[in-house]
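Translate sequence into structure tokens.
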Amino acid sequence: MELPPLLHDLHLSSSPSSSKRTRPSAPLPPITELLSELQKKLIGVAESSALIGQVERLFQTADPDWLFPPLLDEQVSEWAELQAAYASVITALIGCAALPLCHEDCGSLDASAYQSIPKRAAAVSSALTALLGNWKEGGGARRDRLLLAVAPPIYLFCVTHLQDEVWTSAASRTAARRLKGALLRAGGWRDSAHLLAGEEEDRCILGGVLDVLQPQLTRESWRRCAALKLQFSWTLLQVTRPFLSPFLHRLLPPSLLLNDDYKPENCMLGVRCLHHIVLNTPAADLRQFNRAEVLYQALFRHLYTSETGVIQLVLSCLLDLLLVLEKPPSSDCRKKPCRHDDVLRLVLTHMEAEQKVALRRVYASALPLYVERVGVAVCRHLRRLLPVLLGYLEVGDPPEESVRLKMLEVLQSTIRLAWPRMASRADALLRCLLRLLVDVSADPGLSDSVRLQLMEGSSASLRLLDAATQRRVQRLLLQVDSRHCSPQVLCCLATVTAARTCT
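Result follows.
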């Protein structure tokens, strides 16, 4: 091992003479002593690149029995000292590539502030990879416990520098991926999910990771580190049922903190975290301590925003959360309005006045799911729903026409569910569908596949409306003047009247 230069730099040489007189065979100091001095050096040095390189060579060339001395299980104090020494030096190493803190409530820094971080992060990743490479050389319960103690900060360091962010480069991301692989191999973990919350409770590090993160995840300080929200959200999204539930009380508050933020990107991240919690936590645990109601109130208020990304995520999350809070109206046949009705009523109110194309698409994509969920209770919303349907079917959405296609889907579901109420609304719906057929057949900007979908959807809606009105639609369609309709429109009408043939 070529350790004398490093030992001399750390003032740990076995003799007071110069390093030239230090023989390679000289007795080595205890590893805990070296790690203690190394930590002080890493914290105190202004430019740490050269020192990190020396540390990497130390971990590469040192004897594993010296790095991890074969202590007996009875030597509890020695094991504790070794664990503390490694934890301190790893924290100091990671601190050499720590991100600069933002000013309070600023939440972001200029890219130039992170200019030196990728190079430092790559060097730290290489040093830690070299250290973890020695773990597979020997085992034992104590060494496993040592690995579990140092794994949380290493894991968080990997997560920070795996992301494609302003503080990373291709080289630093590659080094972080290698470090993550070395960590998984050292502990015999399959992947990140197994590392965080595997089958064996005493072999998981999620608790340790949260111990590191939670002191920083407060309302006053979480915005100061740009990587903190990414570390938390990435960790949470790796943990699935049934391993998430025991940590629910620690995962829910930071998720709500992100959800409540005024920045749309943070809010969207929080909603994703909450949705993941809803999907991976038993309903009984969510209802305990009124957690589900808290989530509902936190999400429901976002329906008043005009941010497209937030609305899209919230509508999807609420759809799953409502099943935790109550039975769907379609299965319960309840007479009193419920939360499903509250959400659908507000969505329809906003849809009727919405002019932004992006938001209209988001609302239109979510509406079929909500109509199916409420079932026959959609009758309570016909006064709001039908004007929305008519208005959205009249306005084109080229080139995919996703809004019109979704509205035709909603119309068909509504006719099936509320068919006794269709007779008084048949005239308005028939005029709208006929106008849609004519517009679509004459629009040269539509592709053949989209035109076919729209015409088939319109025909299906006409057939359902005809059945709901006891063939009244057929009688009205027979009065259509074929001279003013294209062959495509006549072909669609023929599927309803069964009196004409396609030509």
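Note: Residues 13-25, 499-503 have pLDDT under 50 and may be disordered.
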